[in-house]
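Standup notes
- DV: blocked on the single-chain target, sequence here:
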Amino acid sequence: MSNTETVYPGKYLNVLRKGRWEYTERAKSSGVVAIAACYREQLILTEQFRHPVDRIVIDLPAGLVGDSNEDENEAAQSAAERELLEETGFRARHWQNALTIPTSPGLTSELVEIFVAKELEKASAGGGVGEEDIKVHLVPPTNLNRFWKEQRTAGKLIDPKVYVALHLLEYRAE
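- DV (later): unblocked, structure below
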């Protein structure tokens, strides 16, 4: 393999070149976490506007590891706990680091650690921090197909990690 060259060092993303390949990496975090969780037999999903795709996206509660100046050495599970609480207002008693997946391996070096959170309790309002403006959806498995159709009809995108979460939680759309 050839050496890696930094083409552009950004505040949040770096653009790198390795041989003929150009790709991105996160500049200020050590990883990404996503949380697969249910509350009272309902899948917990989040909804927020995503600027890169210029659309609203339905996804899992998720966020960056070590992206704040307060805790640059944050552990992945700590980030998952923090993000679940910030975005949804839920806390979990039990956590399992289920798997690590690439987000778009032809474009970025980013890997996502997906955690399964169990035994949840509502602790706060959620909704994100700052300008995140996150909406929380609690969807029963029997309503998943209708929910997907309604969201797509409304022009929203469904993040593929949601389907991974369904598998991890052993949900099956009826």
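- Follow-up: The domain at 4-168 is CATH 3.90.79.10 (Nucleoside Triphosphate Pyrophosphohydrolase).
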